[in-house]
Write a structure and sequence with these properties.
CATH architecture of the largest domain: 3-Layer(aba) Sandwich
Oligomer: single chain
Number of domains: 2
Distance between the termini: 49 Å
Helix content: 25-40%
Strand content: 15-25%
CATH superfamily of the largest domain: NAD(P)-binding Rossmann-like Domain
Radius of gyration: 23 Å
Shape: globular
Number of strands: 19
Length: 473
């Protein structure tokens, strides 16, 4: 079958893409920016790519007319706390219009479990998208899931941060809300097995793992798998706003996502309809098995995708191309260079920068800068990096965003997503046996210039030692 995969660069899209290729399908990946499709050359050679923004005029967007089915994996929850529901509705309407001129027979949508009369804004939006898709010129199969547990998922990373950082927790009462987590590999199995299955056309199904747990149970279950104990005490006084700040400062989540998650965590999310599991004969993994499987992926450096790499989680609101040309005028720069002996090994050092490997000098100063950034609403160093030595354009890298990662020209270009009174770029390049390192800052007014000169003394020894340590092999 020929399949249109929307959200191909998202958490679910990156997981299902290799599975669809292994099944022998022809896949067309729909992404806003082709350069952001974080796949290696082997996979890229097997797929077609179309650049589409489903929030733009649908008459300007085109997809192949001969597609047989499509996955709708477009969500906007990390982009806003106010109008993400409007964006999701508009994207779904545009999607329907774009597919009117194709031969698409089935659209598969991953939604959220909706079994409360009073839904959170997040779940209400998912339900509204379902209703919009059902009006499209195709048959729809909707899979409704709750908490998805897997390496790189927002739920897993939040639970991981809470348990690893806080052995004793004072938590809001929503930790007593019941939910039904499901392993990411089970979600992928459901998504692929309903493809082309006419028994599922025009229907919505709940999917979940075998365990019904409170969020408190999930925190304890994580600690059990990891081999330590934690103590959790609940209090009834944490408002949604305080709860969101609590998640934001303790975990790797963004404040926008924290707000939307807290809003949803007040609702019970339990799979009431198990027809699909029986129909397909799928045996799902327990919550503790899902945690164990996630850590096996992490330990083997096999994390395919992470929610943290979403562009919506950072500062960039346009295409990467709008930032990739580093300005030359009206900027302040710190330029350094050093001759190198072994280009291959130095290049490896550049590609490993950030995350757990750190920044080659003064990591405690970088951590302080990250903490200060988080205090004023920036990402801080919470995002780390998805893979220890692989980088793709669009990836999050601590409080930077990767604009360019070109192995041929041996060039890495980063854009700062920290809160600053201006715009900042950091570039590394190897050319003719010399390593060049350039920090560029375009200040906004007097405040921006005062900021640059206030941190200049730190730049003198941080950036100087950083390039020297990168050059060491």
């Amino acid at each position: 079958m020929k399949i249109l995969l929307t959200g191909a660069n998202g958490y679910i899209g990156m997981r299902i893409l290799p599975k669809l290729l292994d099944m022998g399908h022809s896949v067309v990946c729909a992404v806003r920016d082709e350069k952001r499709l974080s796949v290696d050359a082997k996979i890229r050679s097997k797929i077609d790519i179309v650049e589409i923004d489903f929030l733009d005029d649908p008459e300007k967007q085109q997809v192949p007319k001969d597609i047989d089915a499509a996955y709708y994996l477009i969500h906007s929850m990390t982009s806003s706390v106010t109008d993400f529901d409007e964006k999701e509705a508009q994207a779904a309407k545009n999607f329907n219009m774009i597919l009117e001129n194709t031969q698409c027979q089935q659209v598969i949508y991953l939604s959220g479990i909706v079994n409360d009369k009073e839904l959170s804004k997040h779940l209400s939006s998912r339900k509204n998208v379902e209703e919009i898709l059902y009006k499209g010129p195709f048959d729809v199969t909707v899979l409704r899931a709750g908490i998805i547990v897997g390496s790189g998922s927002s739920s897993f990373e939040i639970i991981r941060d809470l348990c690893e950082k806080l052995p004793i927790m004072i938590t809001p009462k929503w930790v007593l809300t019941k939910t039904q987590p499901i392993a990411i590999r089970d979600v992928i199995q459901f998504l692929t097995e309903v493809l082309g299955n006419k028994e599922t056309y025009g229907q919505s199904f709940d999917i979940g793992g075998p365990d019904i747990l409170t969020y408190k149970d999930m925190l304890h279950g994580y600690a059990k798998v990891r081999g330590f104990k934690n103590w959790i005490f609940t209090v009834p006084v944490m408002t949604p706003k305080l709860s969101s700040y609590w998640l934001y400062f303790v975990t790797s989540t963004s404040y926008k996502l924290a707000m939307n998650l807290v809003d949803s965590m007040k609702m019970e999310v339990i799979a009431e309809d198990n027809r699909l599991q029986k129909m397909l004969g799928i045996e799902t993994h327990s919550y503790e098995e899902a945690i164990d499987l996630a850590f096996k992926k992490i330990e083997q450096n096999l994390v395919i995708s992470s929610w943290k790499d979403s562009i919506a989680s950072g500062r960039i609101k346009k295409d990467l191309e709008d930032y990739i040309q580093v300005p030359k005028y009206g900027v302040l720069q710190d330029k350094k260079s050093t001759p190198i002996q072994n280009e291959k090994e130095v290049f490896k050092n550049i590609w490993r920068i950030g995350g757990a490997n750190g920044w080659y000098y003064g990591n405690w100063l970088w951590k302080i800068r990250g903490f200060l950034d988080k205090l004023v609403g920036g990402p801080g160093l919470r995002r780390g990096r998805t893979h220890p030595d692989k980088i793709f354009p669009g990836d999050a890298l601590d409080f930077w965003r990767v604009l360019l990662a070109d192995k041929k020209s041996k060039r890495l270009l980063l854009f700062a997503e920290m809160k600053t009174p201006g715009e900042a770029w950091l570039e590394f390049k190897i050319e003719d046996g010399v390593l060049y390192q350039t920090a560029t800052f375009r200040p906004k007014g007097l405040l921006g210039r005062l900021y640059w000169y206030s941190v200049l003394p730190f730049h003198l020894f941080i950036f100087g030692n950083m390039i020297r340590n990168i050059a060491k092999v």
